[in-house]
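Notes, Module 5: Reading structure tokens.

Key idea: the token line is not a picture. It is a compressed description, and you learn to read it the same way you learned to read a sequence, by spotting repeated patterns. We will look at two proteins. The first is printed below with its tokens.
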Amino acid sequence: MTTVLLVIDSFGIGALPDASKYGDSGANTAAHICGIIKGEKWPALRNMGLGNASEILGNPLPGVKPAKEPTALFGVMNEKSPGKDTTTGHWEMAGLILDKPFHVFPPAYPSFPEELLKAFVEETGCGGILGNKSASGTAIIDELGEEHLKTGYPICYTSADSVFQIACHREKYPIEELYRLCEAARRLCDPLAIGRVIARPFDGKPGAFFRTPERHDFSIALPGKTVMDVLQKKGVQTVAVGKIGSIFLEQGIDVSYHDAGNPACLARTVNILKEKSDKDRFIFVNLVDTDMIYGHRRDVEGYYQAVDNIDSRLPKILSLLEEGDRLVITGDHGCDPAYRGTDHTREYVPVLYQIKGQPGRSVGIRATFADLAATIAESYGAKMGTGKGFFG
């Protein structure tokens, strides 16, 4: 049996009950996009039951009507862990529920503790840093890229997430050198409980800088076993595509493809499925563009088109699955492009769990993303210590 789990990064479907604690009351990534972009949309997701899932929360999606006979089990999932970031969301859907949030640096200059920066400069020999504040990744390289080229100082910045990000021009720091800086920062950030250190390479000239695709996430160590560890013990081949391997530090992963961008990750998924296997497989895919390129930049049209491009590839993916195989679609948090600010939003995420050849039905509002991990484990005859499966 093969299961393909596609995470549409930041594809939220309505503010969680505790969203006000995060300043996110009224956020709804999917509904706001559907309300702004007119006409019928996303036919494959509609057929699976995306509109049905949203109506569970009382939030109709304009242009995505509930399917009369949805092909997938459909519902929405509540994030039980505190936070609204990539690591927290992915870990929880893999069965790791956090009891306390990762540390977040303050947004205003200076964001980083003096002791951290002193140790970073001494260990790396970089001479100093630029930035030291919360910022949009594209904005800060426009602001500080020229100075970075003159001084050679890496641009270090954060966001509303638990991140220490390092942006360097490829002429000043080849990719491996940038990764070396990030490895040093990762060690120094571990005692501070920082979720991710992120390499942000860029290229170009002043006034025309652009980020390059060698981004790499250096995650904090996992606090326990995930569904992938459990599946490995059952002899299931675990395959990661996109930034999944980085998020999970390659733990529990047999084969890891670090493709960058949705087109490459979707193409990789199709190619994996074309290679028929006599092994049971679990293929875990992150589709980052919705979040990184469009959500944070508050680009409603771009976000809609990115989802539309994913939707257009789903029939091909389904055609490569055998009877009884699974295609699962979900998100890891929200990033409402029609909301204020540029940060993630604390939202429910949809879950569409299609078993090829079987009809769909509602699985309601799930108490935790970990219910998905429990469901996937149970489908292979395994058990998780967290979550409740859809068939329990």
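Here is the second protein, with the sequence above and the tokens below, as before.
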Amino acid sequence: MEYLRKLQISREGKSAFLFGPRLTGKTYLLKHTFPDAKYYDLLRSDTFLRLSIRPSVFREELEALEEGSTVIVDEIQKLPVLLDEIHLLIEERGLRFLMTGSSARKLRRGGVNLLGGRARMLRLHPLVSSEIGDFDLLKALTIGTLPSIYDSSEAWEDLKAYCGVYLQEEIAAEGAARKLDAFARFLHSAALFSGEQVNYEAWGSDALVPSRTVREYFYMLSDTLLGEMLEPWRKGKKRKPAASGKFYFFDIGVRNALAGIRTLSPGTAEFGKALEHLIYNELRAWLDYSRDDRALSFWRTTDGKEVDFMVGDDLAIEVKSAEFPDHRDLKGLIALAEEGSFRHRILVCQSPAPRMVEGIEIWPIKEFLIRLWQNAYA
């Protein structure tokens, strides 16, 4: 199925890096938008070998292009040396480059030319609710929203294969983890406890590695775009914030596959965790696509008060799977009102209709998502 992506790339303008995990649709989006562009795929062994032996061949092959022509380079992190050639071609020939990447590790290492502001940084996420015509909440919570997997008749098998390819290609090929068995154990723990505050010592014990290695593993997941460490919101006036962050995977289906969760039942704790995770994924994509620089964080205090998500300093969102939330479900948002001034304090749940309680907006899940993508909270 073809989807109209929220991330739109202008046919004219600056060069750009388009980052995103494998199978998010980066190549399809660029080739569909720029069908006449010169295209290089660095995952192809023959292309990689030819250009790695003599990178100047890349510049020589593009010398005949007209000024302003567009060139797509897939998986630029495989051959960062090409960025020097790209820099020259932007400056001397006026070419526009659109470069995809599924890992930022090699590009973050010292000495790599990131084109000195000549290229924008963009990020593509899995499908979001507003890109799916008939959005199936339970389906999205179970298998995630990677385009090819959302449409697959064998989604679980595809997810298992995806996770296996990630371990083999992204981690082993980069030599980023010496012991893949320990890293696999860590991934399982990180998936099971996603959305919870990270305990490096406990997770290290589960993976049979030191806590410092667990920290390195989390950096690795962030560098390879598999997830994000969400930091605590620290601007409250009264209560002391929590010290450690929470980690979320980029896609709930990948998280479920790593955790071994094949089915979800409404009303269970696992369903609630998955719903929270999906709202995180939607918020992160919305902020990136709308180029909103507000930080995404969470609020938790040392005395146990908590709100799932904070956008900047004026939007607070709690997620519950209840159909009829009670006062206990609102206590974090109520306590938060003492910490600052908020334009919106929102409870997202399975309520049949919107309502307002003690200044807190209660929104059904799908209605909240519609409002989010209509920029009601910009």
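Summary for the second protein:
- The two ends are 30 Å apart (CA to CA).
- The CA atoms of residues 21 and 102 lie 5 Å apart.
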